[in-house]
Amino acid sequence: MSNETVWDRPEPPAKPSPTPLSRELVVGAAIRLADAGGLDEVSFRKVAAALGAGPMRLYGYVETKDELLDLMVDEVYGEITPPSPSAGWREGLRHVAHGVRAAAKRHEWFVDLVGNRPHQGPNALTHLETTLATVRFEDIDQVLDVVGAVMAYVFGAVRGEITELRAERSSGMTEEQWQRASGPYMQRVLATGRFPTLARVVHESSDRDAAERFETGLGYVLDGVAARHSP
Amino acid sequence: MSNETVWDRPEPPAKPSPTPLSRELVVGAAIRLADAGGLDEVSFRKVAAALGAGPMRLYGYVETKDELLDLMVDEVYGEITPPSPSAGWREGLRHVAHGVRAAAKRHEWFVDLVGNRPHQGPNALTHLETTLATVRFEDIDQVLDVVGAVMAYVFGAVRGEITELRAERSSGMTEEQWQRASGPYMQRVLATGRFPTLARVVHESSDRDAAERFETGLGYVLDGVAARHSP
DNA sequence: TATCGATCGATACACTGTATCGCTATAAGA
DNA sequence: TCTTATAGCGATACAGTGTATCGATCGATA
């Protein structure tokens, strides 16, 4: 199970025959397929077909499917712009948080892949470096704690957001919050009276948009950090 | 793609022939396999074999594989003890957070499944209800924000923790923090000098244990909540 | 021009989830 | 007790997956 992705594998010398391919082209095709139809659409056969090649051709550029997925993830990390070096830790982390969220909404499959394996690609490492560097505390352990907590929140929140989005999309296109509650099962459940708080949520809560909720939660985390490490 | 799990499907009347089965037995076997060998070990063939049955037999108790996975997730939710009703929101949420973390460490596949589909099983709903109920703010929207943020952090943090754990386990059994840094690739990367903060982390940071880091991050979130909603 | 060498992809294998459907063993009816 | 109906089980089959093997085919070099 030692499926270590080789991040700095040299490109094969040149491509002679039909259409010259490259690892970038393979990864690009895979990303395009995943963006359009989800991760299920990313199979060696489909990616190869999208490039007008046979499935086995891909093995010249990618050693395994896990490596292809790793490369896709790293590509997304590359899309996230780093915070300005002059920014304070709070704006810096907010910038990163929103960058990750935006990237994850552009590529919904990102959250499915993130966290399956550690991100050690060049773009992921650059992302991590600039994120850490935006928090200029003297104690490096504190820096790790803060960045770790913020990123944990970000990934958790974005994952939840996209899950909700998918559920809404699949169960009838109605975008109204908690419209699942009108499903017969949910109504039955709420009718038992054993979920009073849940019922309050369904009936009383206003459906604010996702970005607002994300920002509120992020505010909690950053406020908590400030409360302990502010000058 | 309307793979709606039917949570309250009635059990089939009775099992006559070889070994009487039940949905609980099927889910239990699946969980046992997943605990032992990861989610890859959960296939209809393998689960059925573990029960001494043919693969098709499972379809009497479970409509699809996604439903089986949903049931497994709900079973884990059932293991998480609710917070005491007399607890304040802070202790209540801390209790839930640690409960989720503990359950996820008992069943490492949990984080892989959580967030793929919304959790609407009875145990998940009970878990959500008791979690919401522990935060007795007058504004239900605030309750949602707080619980949402805390759970986002918890799931993100636990996911990261288990990913790290898997990486350590697969890359040589050395448990030392950042021992990946001694891998040739990581050394090469750090030698470029383009990741100074990362290098500081690798060389200077002390390797505290995961529970401590989890608690610290959770503290940030809860402190942030307290800063805005404290009486 | 002839040989070599690399690369492409057809074929194959083990595995997945699941649709179909004949068999069988049990339960009900006479 | 003997027959019939019924329902559940699982063998078989199918489309899909990742990938190992390896023969054919093409380009470049001698």
Q: What's this model, at a glance?
A:
The structure is a homodimer of 231-residue chains. With 231 residues, chain A is mainly alpha-helical.
Low-confidence stretches of chain A: 12-17
Quote the average pLDDT of chain A.
88
Number of H- or I-type helical stretches of chain A: 10
Q: Which range does the strand content of chain A fall in? A: under 5%
Largest interface: A-B, 71 and 72 residues
The fold-level CATH name of the largest domain in chain A is: Tetracycline Repressor, domain 2
Distance between the termini of chain A: 47 Å
C-alpha geometry of chain A = flat
Which CATH architecture of the largest domain in chain A would you pick? Orthogonal Bundle
**What is the domain tally of chain A?**
2
Helix content of chain A: 55-70%
Secondary structure layout plus pairing:
The structure is a homodimer of 231-residue chains.
Chain A: H1 23-37, H2 44-50, H3 65-79, H4 89-106, H5 110-113, H6 122-133, H7 140-170, H8 184-191, H9 196-204, H10 210-229
Helix pairs in contact in A: 1-2, 1-3, 3-6, 4-7, 7-10
Chain A binds a DNA duplex (30 and 30 nucleotides) through helix 2.
